[in-house]
Write a structure and sequence with these properties.
about 750 residues, globular
């Protein structure tokens, strides 16, 4: 019932009654407030507040409730017959009038968060006829928008990404649409709407670069500013002569034909397209003149630019809502450069640009030089064991040759399950717990190679040296492992997955492993003697800045949804219940951030994508400095090891073992339906080194609960005693036999 009350409170707040536009201005001036002061407190632009006072636009949630609250307090202080001081002057102190509460940034910041309970001062319900449309179309304005100081950390959902840079005062992006009167409008973040005079796509690109003031500052000193992003609705596509959807052939090709009339228009105007052509994420540019870039990115949702797996129904949102959603992602992560996977990879480069300007030489000129800590501007060859099948370095192998573990590095996420024991069958529940941002946590603090590998024979293992090691770990016995300094634990090794293989099977001989995997064997108390290795002496914590930015984006957005760090475990579980419904758009941002992590790691070993490729030939991704399968392997290795370490700690302390593990999800048999029924909390404190409930990356959340009868039933139904129940624990739906794919 409380959720229904919360929903009603939120609905009422979204229709907070406001005085007429002229009265809004009078009240502000009566208290001596400037447009800039109100805009800063509400975390919107000056032009936005000006539009509200002129009646050109109407505030929308969550700013509407805070704005209504301010005006209500001012109306009590300054009745309609009160004298109005001149604009932008201070109000003289009047002892007879009580001082109004200061308009701090705290209240509006709280108002920007989706309401999860009754407001401190609930607004009265406005008459239905007076309520604005669910998705209002603000009138246009081309007034310049001033901004407050740029936040160092991830800002509220309404915070523009342009910071204080006047070049980008209208934010990183705009959604271009056509209204019912045929006027082309650009919906920017913060509620700003611009008139678009462009009649063709080339002129739209020109307008964007010369007048729109769109874009975002660089994320790193030697880096480049983010190019402006235009999101074209179907109406805008029609206006500019582009198809609303792609044909089957165009979808497969990923682009419209080069002979399309719009592409010819661009060519005549001396604009160029990148090699991927005019597709869902088109880049239109002219060669850079000095430090000045002339490039505009297009995003076309109706061409499937926004993958529904990560962006849900974002592509169907009204323009203003889509601008808010993508603007939040841009402010907290970066302006999208393509799919979430592409953006994840681009974020690595944006935070560690390959080159920087040198110190001035004798003539005072600066030159481009390698940026320390980056991957450089040239690709490096991977080790043969790190190369995926079909790589040119393996061209000498027979066609259909199957490489053994002693020939290929296989560091992948867990996909392991086992039959339930008799004792576990007597428990009523199977409870799944899921590690938050597991691969991001695996990247945090990880030392990775920056340059090419060095081949060594019979090396001494060094846990601080990133690389790939050929070593026999079959002697590691999980029935007796070290869990602390000089402290060993006796476990039932048959109930544990091996930490050395994705399927949890014990290795049978020498195999290639990334450094974190071999280091974990040493941590468990066993000696290792590598046979050979490919190590990288040039190394560093390349992914730390990447992790920090994505972590901050994730935590800030979850906080907007009412899930905060350091909550007590019971409060955290309650906050997670239904958090996506509090603000579905921000929930999409959460999904996109998580997809950026996984996709970015996956892109480090991108495979051929058509293009007429044949085994043994290079493919396009190999030309990138960020094609680094060794870094991908190290992150996945560490993520899997992090999971196994927690499993071992939990087993040593409680005697409980997982029945299934899938990537970052583990399933346990439990006497109760909640994670708190089997996680060993004492006075709200978790087991040190074990699973801990919380929103931070590396901590766990509840994934789902099913009955033990359900688990045994689906395994019997598919005649699969080792069916991975972690894959289906969330909602209990099993659509087909588990193949492990």
């Amino acid at each position: 019932m409380s959720e229904l009350f919360d929903a009603v409170d939120a609905l009422i707040a979204s229709r907070s009654p406001l005085p007429p536009p002229a009265e809004r201005k009078r009240l502000r001036q009566a208290h001596g407030l400037t447009l800039d002061e109100v805009a800063a407190a509400l975390q919107v632009r000056r032009a936005t507040v000006s539009g509200w006072e002129a009646g050109k636009t109407e505030p929308r949630p969550p700013e509407r409730d805070a704005y209504a609250r301010m005006l209500k307090q001012l109306a009590q202080l300054y009745p309609a017959n009160a004298p109005v001081p001149p604009e932008d002057t201070a109000v003289p102190e009047t002892p007879a009038v009580p001082a109004a509460p200061a308009l701090s940034a705290v209240e509006p910041a709280q108002a920007c968060t989706a309401p999860t309970g009754p407001a401190a001062e609930p607004a009265k319900t406005a008459p239905r006829s007076a309520a604005p449309a669910a998705v209002p179309r603000p009138a246009t304005t081309n007034r310049p928008a001033s901004r407050g100081p740029a936040a160092k950390k991830a800002g509220p959902a309404s915070t523009p990404a342009g910071g204080t840079d006047a070049r980008f005062e209208n934010g990183p992006l705009a959604v271009v649409d056509v209204d019912d009167d045929g006027k082309v409008l650009a919906y920017c973040v913060g509620g700003l709407v611009l008139d678009v005079p462009a009649k063709s796509l080339p002129s739209l690109v020109e307008w964007t670069l010369k007048e729109a003031k769109l874009g975002a500052p660089k994320l790193s000193g030697p880096g480049k500013d983010a190019d402006p992003l235009l999101v074209l609705t179907e109406a805008a596509l029609e206006r500019y002569g582009l198809p609303a959807t792609l044909t089957k052939e165009e979808r497969l090709a990923g682009r419209i034909p080069e002979g399309h009339k719009v592409i010819k228009q661009l060519v005549r105007a001396n604009w160029q397209l990148t090699k991927r052509g005019f597709g869902p994420w088109a880049r239109i540019y002219r060669p850079a003149q000095g430090a000045e870039r002339s490039c505009v990115q297009l995003c076309i949702p109706s061409w499937d630019a926004l993958d529904a797996r990560h962006w849900a129904d974002a592509g169907q949102l009204p323009p203003a809502d889509l601008a808010r959603l993508l603007g939040t992602y841009a402010a907290r992560v970066m302006t999208p450069r393509g799919s979430t996977a592409v953006t994840g990879l681009e974020l690595m480069t944006a935070l560690h640009p390959p080159t920087r300007a040198s110190e001035p030489d004798a003539t005072g000129k600066r030159h481009s030089e390698h940026n320390p800590g980056s991957l450089g501007k040239d690709p490096v060859d991977c080790a043969p064991c790190e190369a995926p099948d079909g790589h040119p370095v393996l061209a000498h192998l027979p066609r259909f040759h199957h490489r053994t573990p002693a020939e290929v590095l296989v560091e992948e996420a867990y996909d392991w399950a086992r039959p339930l024991t008799d004792a576990e069958c007597l428990r009523p529940h199977l409870v799944g717990i899921d590690v938050n941002m597991a691969f991001a946590a695996g990247a945090n603090g990880l030392n990775v190679g920056l340059g090419a590998p060095t081949h060594v024979k019979n090396p001494v293992f060094d846990a601080k040296l990133p690389g790939s090691w050929l070593v026999d770990l079959s002697h590691v016995d999980l029935s007796r492992v070290k869990v602390a300094k000089d402290k060993w634990a006796e476990l039932d090794g048959e109930l544990l997955p091996s930490p050395f293989t994705p399927q949890g099977e014990r290795p049978t001989g020498p195999a290639w492993y990334a450094t974190p995997t071999v280091a974990y064997a040493v941590e468990l108390g066993y000696e290792v003697c590598p046979i050979e290795a490919y190590v990288r002496h040039d190394n560093g914590r390349y992914l730390d800045a990447w992790y920090n930015r994505l972590r901050d984006a994730y935590l800030a957005t979850m906080a907007d949804l009412g899930v905060h760090a350091d909550m007590p475990p019971a409060d955290f579980l309650a906050a997670m219940d239904g958090y996506r419904q509090r603000d579905p758009q921000l929930a999409i941002v959460v999904s996109a951030v998580k997809a950026t992590v996984k996709g970015g790691i996956g892109k480090l070993r991108e495979r051929p994508r058509g293009e007429g490729w044949k085994p043994g030939q290079p493919w396009r991704a190999l030309a990138r400095p960020t094609w680094r399968p060794d870094i991908r392997a190290a992150v996945i290795s560490r993520t899997r090891i992090n999971m196994h370490r927690k499993i071992v700690k939990h087993a040593a302390f409680t005697g409980q073992y997982p029945v299934a593990v899938l990537s970052d999800c583990a399933v346990y048999a439990s006497d109760g339906p909640s994670p708190l029924d089997f996680l060993p909390y004492r006075d709200s404190k978790p087991l040190p080194g074990g699973f801990k409930l919380g929103v931070n990356p590396g901590l766990v959340k509840w994934e789902g609960t099913q009955s033990v009868l359900w688990g045994e039933g689906v395994r019997e139904q598919f005649n699969a005693p080792d069916l991975n129940l972690a894959r289906y624990i969330k909602d209990g739906t099993v659509t087909d036999q588990d193949t492990g794919e």
